[in-house]
Write a structure and sequence with these properties.
Blueprint (H helix, E strand, L loop, with lengths): L2 E6 L2 E2 L5 E5 L2 E5 L7 E8 L5 E10 L12 H4 L9 H19 L21 E9 L2 E7 L6 E3 L8 H17 L13 E8 L5 E7 L6 H10 L3 E8 L13 E7 L3 E5 L2 E5 L9 H14 L7 E5 L5 H6 L5 E6 L2 H13 L5 E5 L2 H4 L9 E4 L7 H11 L3 E6 L2 H11 L3 E9 L9 E8 L1
Helix pairs in contact: 2-10, 3-4
This protein binds S-adenosylmethionine.
Length: 442
């Protein structure tokens, strides 16, 4: 049974949600902020936990601002749009501060969140599902917590060059009647679009198709009209169901250049569609510069960079050290890294393809410094055991998940001192917290 009640937000969760209490049990309420009085519909989710669907903000927080994006609550992809920017930055720092106070014994120099220059339209890459609706094609979003998609006529986080190109692609899909794939009716062809852009507003576009289809005419007109589209791929994935299946397809360059170049601080990174690159270009440049500045690198240092992507950090660091070993599991990213290193004439970076957790036991070199930028799960036991056994002098830890970061720091604190921690806002309007931590052997 659904009940409507009035509650007050007593604290904030780690995912941007407000937490109130109903019959002494926590109720998790998205889009509500600390101290607000709100009217919510209470439901129990599948795990038996109370969730409150926000119906009305009765007493708004002084930090609340109006939300203009019409898909805000339905999408959930940006969940802090109701907060003014300064308070959003404070919130991101607070999440780390609270975890540190609860779990870490030592006093930590936790700095202010580094703001993003762009607070909307900051993403240099997007993966958009497509939808065919009443005779037209549109970009779409997933409904929060569901695999249902809905059409979106206004995009909020993507860079403007991407938004322009999405409009051009969908208009040409309408013209050529090459439509979005519908998973229910199994009609249509193109399941999603992936677009990446650089500072010159050049674009690499990948069509993910469920069926093998000739896109030649559409693509010729597309690149004829928009000279900034320099690289077009088709990724034919007959078994596509979720984004995890992306890599199982057949990726083929169908027009233009193989690579989209992104230039940061004079280093060129040549990217193909499957390579990871940080999504907020300006923030990435800042964090890499901080690594060089605060990493205490010495000319005879041998450095390990694991989870390296196309080796952006390895490239920034390599002029200051003797050698860098960069480990990355996606073969395409390692190929792009090798090509980029060659173009940048950086000769002291050795690249290794493979799952770092599996190949760690074969690493023969001992490292003075290690740099990690793991996925959400954090370092995991095998990597922590390796660190506590080999004891490199310094560890630089980039994290996209404060929870796994703090778990890892808790284990490392016995041997390592946390020199500093800095949250970075890579994803404005969302509750995602990126950070960089510098650790030193005690
Ligand atoms: C968050 S990205 C960091 C990339 C890089 N540090 C940068 O700033 O561009 C994480 C990278 O780790 C890679 N990766 C994930 N799990 C891995 C594993 N077990 N072994 C090696 N690489 C892994 C992913 O493919 C991805 O390129």
């Amino acid at each position: 049974m659904v009940k409507t009640v009035t509650l007050t937000i007593k604290r904030m969760g780690n995912d941007g949600e407000g937490i109130a209490f109903y019959q002494n049990k926590p109720v998790y309420i998205y889009y509500a902020f600390l101290n607000e009085e709100v009217k919510v519909e209470i439901r129990r989710n599948k795990r038996g936990v109370y969730e409150g669907v926000l119906k009305e903000v009765i007493t708004p927080s002084e930090h609340r601002i109006p939300v203009s994006w019409p898909y805000y609550e339905l999408s959930g992809s940006v969940n802090l749009m109701h907060l003014n920017y300064l308070e959003a930055l404070n919130y991101k720092r607070f999440i780390i501060k609270r975890l540190l106070e609860r779990r870490i014994k030592d006093k930590v120099d936790l700095r202010r969140t580094v703001p993003s220059e762009k607070t909307s339209h900051y993403r240099n890459k997007t993966e958009l599902p497509l939808i065919y609706f009443e005779g037209k094609n549109y970009p779409a979003h997933y409904q929060r917590g569901s695999n249902q998609i809905f059409k979106v006529e206004e995009l909020i986080v993507e860079e403007e060059s991407i938004i322009k190109a999405v409009k051009e692609v969908t208009a040409l899909m309408d013209k050529y009647q090459i439509n979005a794939y519908n998973f229910k009716t199994k009609r249509g062809a193109i399941a999603s679009l992936s677009l990446r852009t650089n500072q010159k507003e050049e674009l690499q576009i990948t069509f993910l198709t469920k069926v093998k289809i000739d896109l030649k005419e559409l693509v010729n007109e597309l690149v004829g009209n928009n000279k900034k589209i320099i690289s077009v791929y088709q990724n034919y994935v007959p078994n596509f169901k979720t984004n995890r299946d992306l890599y199982s397809g057949k990726l083929e360059l169908i027009k233009g250049e193989k690579y989209l170049p992104i230039v940061l601080s004079g280093y060129q990174f040549y990217l193909t569609p499957f390579s990871f690159f940080q999504l907020n270009t300006l923030q990435a440049n800042k964090i890499y510069q901080t690594i060089v500045k605060e990493g205490n690198f010495k000319k005879d240092d041998v450095v390990l960079e694991a989870y390296s992507g196309v080796g952006a950090i390895a490239s920034f660091v390599s002029p200051y050290v003797k050698k860098v070993v960069a480990v990355e599991e996606v073969k395409a990213a390692v190929n792009d890294m090798n090509y980029s290193l060659k173009k940048n004439k950086l000769n002291n970076v050795k690249t290794i393809t493979g799952d770092f957790k599996k190949l760690i036991k074969y690493l023969k070199t001992s490292f003075d410094k290690v740099i990690f930028d793991p996925p959400r799960e954090g370092l995991t036991k095998v990597v922590l055991d390796y660190l506590l056994k080999t004891l490199p002098k310094e560890i630089i830890y980039l994290s996209c998940n404060p929870l796994s970061l703090i778990d890892d720091l808790k284990l490392l604190q016995e041997k390592y001192q946390i020199r500093s921690m800095t949250p970075y806002d890579f994803f404005p309007l969302t509750s995602q917290v990126e950070s960089i931590t510098f650790l030193k052997l005690k």
